[in-house]
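question for whoever is on the cluster today: can someone run the full assembly for these? two chains, 616 residues total. i dont have access anymore since they changed the login thing
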Amino acid sequence: MMKQSVSEPVIKVRNLVKKFGDFVANDHLSFDVQKGEIFGFLGANGAGKTTAIKILCGLQKPTSGEIQVAGYDVYTQAELIKKNIGYMSQRFSMYEDLSVRENFQFYGGIYGLSGSEIKERTKEMLEDLQMTHISNKILREIPLGWKQKLAFSVAMVHHPKIVFLDEPTGGVDPITRRQFWEMIYTAADKGVTVFVTTHYMDEAEYCGRVSIMVDGRIEALDSPEALKKHYNSTTMNDVFIKLARSSGNTN
Amino acid sequence: MKGFILKEFLHIFRDLRTMLILFGMPVAQVLLFGYAITNEINNAQIAILDHSKDPVTQEITYKLLSSGYFQLNDQLSDASEIEQAFKKGKIKQVVVFEPNFAQKMTKDPPAVIQLITDASDPNTANLLSNYTQAITGDYLRQTSGSKRNLPVINIETTMQYNPELRGVFMFVPGTITILLMLISAMMTSISIAREKELGTMEVLLVSPLKPLHIIVGKVIPYVILSFINALIILILAATVFGMPFQGSLVLLLLQSALFIVMALSMGIFISTVSNNQQTAMLLSMFVLMLPTILLSGFIFPIENMPLPLQILSNIMPSKWFIIIIKSIMLKGLGIAYIWKETLILIGMTIFFIGMSVKKFKIRLD
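^ ran it for u. tokens below:
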């Protein structure tokens, strides 16, 4: 079991291949993510993003390749990986018919936090969000933007090393999205690595580095500024279109 | 408005499952109701204890067996064998001719035929004894002809296990079965399907929770609820309806627990093949509930159904469980007599759990 050292990447992927029968969803992906980075994982629908994330989260086994997440091997130490990561899915992670507090209690419990730890964390996080006054409200009654922020907090309740965000900001206005990203910055400042996928190209600009997947392969991997320079574009939107055009699909 | 109606039609046609239900169900129901629901009895298994063995008893026996209502399962030689014959569970009625029947009939009437009928299904019991009486009466009319001293045959009926022919004795075992099936199987399948539908299942899978823990965690509340419900029904049955508890309560509870686990395994299996709650509910309804009500012997005796349906009823776990409950509650039988049914339930449980695990593993790969 490898111990995490400062210079060691927190996600290490070498030649990740995932096949479903004859279809190659992930074709020899290789990349590193450093601790505290905000890493954007972009690609058109069907490019293979969701498959790759599922493999990194331990939800699926790769066909081949070496992958280490938070210092643990994805084939043999999936359980340890799960304990050290957080996940927020695009379809929300919380139960609509439970209250805010009850949701925190449930997820805290799953991740092995004690009763008092959960109480502490809940109080702390709700205060940060200025949502203490709704702690007993049922989720269904809370506006979408607030739910997203709460979902992010819940994903972080157990102080994970890495948090995976799968299209976290769908369906809300740009201001709310901006606020959400401020939460991401704060987390990254505290040393949490953020692995985020998004369809919003303006959000790609917020990332430290961005990788763009096309047809199962990584076609570009660099900071947004470097990418824009390389592809002679002023926005990530343009970079994306240029890359996507070169593939078979134009999704 | 017309466009809207057209759209609704399109929705329905493209949804294959709904189509199956819309067209399949009425057909299936008509067939089932037509064949399964018959109040006539054919080929009921009976045993005959003939102390007399004279031309008269043989004639009556012949008439009974050729009527189409009865089929000879066993020829008994002694009264002590009667109890055992019923316990084995195959026969519905024992016909006993007293010694010197023919002589008594003509010289010293009445000659007595004793009918002992298994009344754990009171309706069938009634019918069987009525048929027997009718056939015997027929024989009398044929033979008496112009004789002056009319021979008389008296029939004494004993309704075994259920002397007052209380319908509730049939009702309670069936209700317990349906209830357990409903709560354990259907609710479990819906609950797991709901997680899938809402997307929260993924989040659970990413967490340190093992899939086994997730399933067990989902299942336990329903197990407890089912058990409590079953207990309430049993208590009500015993106190309010005076249903007998001839057999071992412990055995009954253990068998109920087995059935609950079995229903759960079916519910879990259904959830692995359903992607949302609606599918889970429909599958549970049409694959579990309706067949259970119609084919398990709950309301309509299985013996009365045509052979294909009888064979079909064998794959209904509810059928076996109803036999077990009745055997324990009404007949006071122990495990020695119901081991076959118990094994069948255990086998079904293992089968469904195995299939569910297999499906789950495939999903993860």
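summary bc i know u wont read the tokens: The longest strand of chain B covers residues 111-118. Residues 44-160 of chain B form a domain with the abc type-2 transporter like fold fold (CATH 3.40.1710.10).
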